[in-house]
Structures are given as structure tokens and as C-alpha cells.
Write the C-alpha cells for this entry.
Amino acid sequence: MLAAVAEGRSNAQAGRALGMREATVKAHVSRILAKLGLANRVQAAILAHDAGWV
């Protein structure tokens, strides 16, 4: 999920790619942001890129 965010995919695009509903993707992204203490998807994308996950 974090890789999909880092690639710049929308919730709908990530959902189609991963076989999930958009609402499920949104919930996962929200949980990831909360657990990592990030404010938005941009910060998550930067983290993923810096860690070499994408």
C-alpha cells in the first residue's frame, strides 16, 4: 500500500491494482499515516523513496 502511495496512485488506482475497494485503501492509508506519525501522503511517499521501497 505504501508503495502505491509513493508511486503517486490515487486510492481508486491503488484499489484497482490491489483488488481492494477504494474505502479499504483509504482506511489502510489512514492507518499507515497514523502509525508512522505522518501528516499526509506526500510525507509517506518521501519516506518510502528515502527507504528505497520504490
